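Support case: user asked for a sample of complex input and structure output to validate their parser. Sending the pair below.
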Amino acid sequence: MIRNPKDLARYTAQERANHWAVGISFILLALSGLAFFHPAFYPLTQLFGGGVWARILHPFIGLLMAASYLVIFLRFRTLNVMTDVDREWISRAGEMMAGDDHNMPEQGKYNGGQKAMFWAMSLSMLLLFVSGILLWRAYFGFPVNAVRLGAVIHAATAAVMIGMIMVHIYAATWVKGTVRAMWYGTVTRAWAKQHHRAWYRQVTGKS
Amino acid sequence: MALQSLDIARRSATTTPPPTVRETTEVAKLIDVSTCIGCKACQAACMEWNDIRDEVGSCSGVFDNPVDLTAKSWTVMRFAEVEEKGNLQWLIRKDGCMHCADPGCLKSCPAPGAIIQYANGIVDFHQENCIGCGYCITGCPFNIPRMSQADNKAYKCTLCSDRVAVGQAPACAKACPTGAIQFGSKEQMKDYADMRIGDLKSRGYDKAGLYDPQGVGGTHVMYVLHHADRPELYRGLPSDPSISPLVSLWKGFAKPLATLSMAAIALGTLFHYVTMGPNEVSKELEDEMEKEDA
């Protein structure tokens, strides 16, 4: 991709590094966690040096993800406050998915879908962290009923989270010109004007 | 323990059937609480046969020693002093794995082959396949498996599967001086229990009965209780144990549901892409920017 000095800066290097710290730890957690969830995925433990190593590593990677996501949360929470325009965007997301985004309401740095994803992921992270601590038998010993509840919450939240991340990755793939924002931080002006027009106006001062 | 010559009925984290052509007799251990004298010969025999030596603990003020099951104490006598109508009863129960027909540990275990149910009903842990997650503890309705601090593997009573495989009774049954621990086919043990229960009833224990809880499909360690209507008297023996609904949800329904949902999202996005095409930046806007720069 040709990089143009007039491209718009969307993410700083620190923000990108932060995002990928979460992303890498999430992928490792999903691969090892699925192995404990369903026997069909058990061979994934080989990626971690076997079942025992997968069991040892998973919670520590979890701590890394929780800490990195906490920073993401603090960085981006104010940008993700929901407004009426966002709710309208969400109610009309079907039109966009069907391939027509011309009538979508004008969006700031994040659209309603991205904001909804942000809050859903934040809640999931909290649930995964708390329930994960309940399950960490190497260091903790909680009452068995709490562990059982934790196991259900951890598995259910993780499954939802994996689904959301697949949608998150797909959205970035489907909307061309998006992924580069997470690789080297910039997007084209045309991209910004098409997908985040209010943000485009804000950063360029144009109409 | 893995050196075994018993047929396997079920294997943890395995979705296809094990070899099931050979049919063997279901075995059971019957613990007659009413004839137990609390001598702990069974505990000593268990240590001896299985080569386990627990840390020497300290006296907790009662006869229980050790005070709880551990990775190195696979059976313990639990002593209950029950006072009713001015009578003191000393109820002594040998605690350990019940070898459920529907084992919560096996259902929860994520490691293929770490928990085995033999065709004769014995549920055995194969520690070489254990990954140390402790899900067996989460799944067990009787609070039996214990994690070793030394190797992070889970341990419990094997019902001396190695002895049973060569036609011997478990070490505890062999050592019991009063015949309170009997071993044989499950049918034989039920018959023996009937005889004992008849005797107890004739002596005024009209609530005497067999503990073979159907909530876990029956067990391969059964108790004769003088108060079968109140198993909790025996140091909290659960009156109607079953696998927790949370565990059933987690290791039952949730597994196919979540797997199919994830597959549906992955395929859904792929087909969305190939049917709708990518969402490109419009030519109009790109031209507009080019004009701006010219």
